[in-house]
Structures are given as C-alpha cells and as structure tokens.
Amino acid sequence: MPILHCIVHRIDKADGEQPAELTPAEAPLAPSPQLDDLLAELTTRFNAKRKGWGYFREDATARSLAALLPAYLETAEPEAFATLSRQTAESLRELVEQQLPTGGYLIMAHVRQGESEHLTLALLHARAGFGVDSRLAVVPVAPLNVSQPALAARIDLTQMRAGQSRQYVAFTRDRGGQALVEAFRDWLGCEEGADAPGETRTLLKAFSDYVESEALPDAAAREKTDALLDYASDQAGRGEPLTLDALSELVDDQQPRAFYDYIRNQDYGLAPEIPPDKRTLQQFKRFTGRAGGVSISFDSHLLGNSIEYDAERDRLIIKQVPDALKTQLRERRS
C-alpha cells in the first residue's frame, strides 16, 4: 500500500468552555515502516466498522471536505496536500468543539492500493500508558487508540473521478449518537447513496428466493450459501463493495449469469455494486434461539427446505431430524 502523502495534526479540547485548539504539522511525514504498519492497522479496523456510504454533494458548504478536496487533486503535490490537511484540520476543529468531549490526532493519508487511490482520515485518541525504553526503564507513553477512532472516513478517489458511483465515500457511524453521525456526514459534504444493511438484507432475501426457486438439495444449497458468504465477508473485510456479476459467477460457475439474471428479472432494485454489511451477513449464517430450556440453531439455507416456520400457529417444523437426536428420543421412549 504505497503512501503518497501522510500527515498528523493535533486537536486539543480541554474541559469547560475553552475552545478547541489546533496544533498543525509543518510538513507531511517521511515514509517509514512504522507509518506503513499504522495505516495498515487503521485500514483493517476501519473495514470492520459499521459504516455509511455515499457521495459528495454539489451544494456542500465551503468548509466541507468535499469543497476543499478539488484544489488539492489538481496537482496532488506535497505542498497542496499540507494545505488541504491544515484546512481540513481547522474545519474539523469546529466539529470537535461542538460534538466531541475530547480532541485527538487527525491522521490524513493519500494512498495507492492496486489500481485505486484513496484518501483516508481518522481522528484518534491517545491513551495514557506505560512502556519500557532501551535502558529497560519504565517510561510513560501515549499510544494511539487505532481500534476505536472517534471519527474516520475513506474516499475512493478513483471512483470519485470516474463519476459513476454513489458510494465512493465511506464513513464510520458506530460511535456517538445520531447527531454526531449527521454532523460528521455534513462536515464531509456527503449524501448517503447506499443503505448497506438494507441492501445486504435485500441481496440475502433474493438469494434465498433463488435457492428455493431452483429446488436445490441441501448440500448444493449449503455450497452456494458458503460461496456467497465467503465472497461477501471477504469484500467487507477489505472495505470493498461486492458486485453482482462476480457473485453470480461464484454462486454457479456452470451458469455464471443465472443468479444475476434472476435478480434482474425479479426486480429487487439492487445496484450492480453493493456495500456488504458484516453484521447482517453474520446474522444470515445461522438462526439461533433459546427459551424455556429449548435451544435451537440451524443453518439459514435450511429454512424452507428441511425446516419450516408456521407463523400462524407459531410452530417450527423439522422435517429431517438429526440421527443423533433421533437415537436419543427413541431411547427415551423405550
């Protein structure tokens, strides 16, 4: 993951009514293995977060990232990046002052990953702690809390320049209340263009309908379910959308367009690219429940095949009882 430019600014916010203060860096950071490791860890953590997805609004305010970014992209030189980052930090200082109890360190990085370029930013808190120096003495340290950024976003600059995506901005929405999420989204100058949990649920519903329409045996249904979940989970872990074309090929390599055509013919309203939601994917893998001494867990693809739910009478019907359970039941009856 080559780092084109990276910089760190500090935003301090004291207790009380004092305004937040910005301490800007003078120039971008020099490349180093430590910086590579930091950004790699930050990327991994960001990909695992619950996120919103969208695109920059044309009417974004002058203080938003959407309005500040174009001037930098005209040259993408280090001096222009330093200017962008200072403007961004000053604008973010106002949001911190209004919405957050404490400040932190603003990390901004322009990176290239494969054929794509991204702008990543994150506001990280520092945690007081202890370490051991080269003389084996205990010293105070303040490590960055990379696992829990107060705010973070990633802009896919390649998709933004292409002008065909409505989900090239990804931003965290797993911390704070709705007011913070909306304030951060407005600060980015972003309009949400994709509902990741909702679209993931629609995709999984379409897949369940497809499996049922094909009347597949359990083994084949499980294989296709695993293919879908493996691909979607992998894309979610990388912070990338899944494409219906690629998914359709994975679901059935003998008929690579079958699932894609099914979705289109049934008009589920899905876009060609979908930002996968990890929480929704995890819930799809298995149905589980426990009450009154009864514990039930089964793979989701079995619903409608080996297992049926009668909603009117609130009954779960198991058509194929596991052999081990049958043996226990027969022994109890005898």
TrEMBL record:
<protein>
    <submittedName>
        <fullName>Nucleoid-associated protein</fullName>
    </submittedName>
</protein>
<dbReference type="Pfam" id="PF04245">
    <property type="entry name" value="NA37"/>
</dbReference>
<comment type="similarity">
    <text>Belongs to the YejK family.</text>
</comment>
<keyword id="KW-0963">Cytoplasm</keyword>
<dbReference type="InterPro" id="IPR007358">
    <property type="entry name" value="Nucleoid_associated_NdpA"/>
</dbReference>
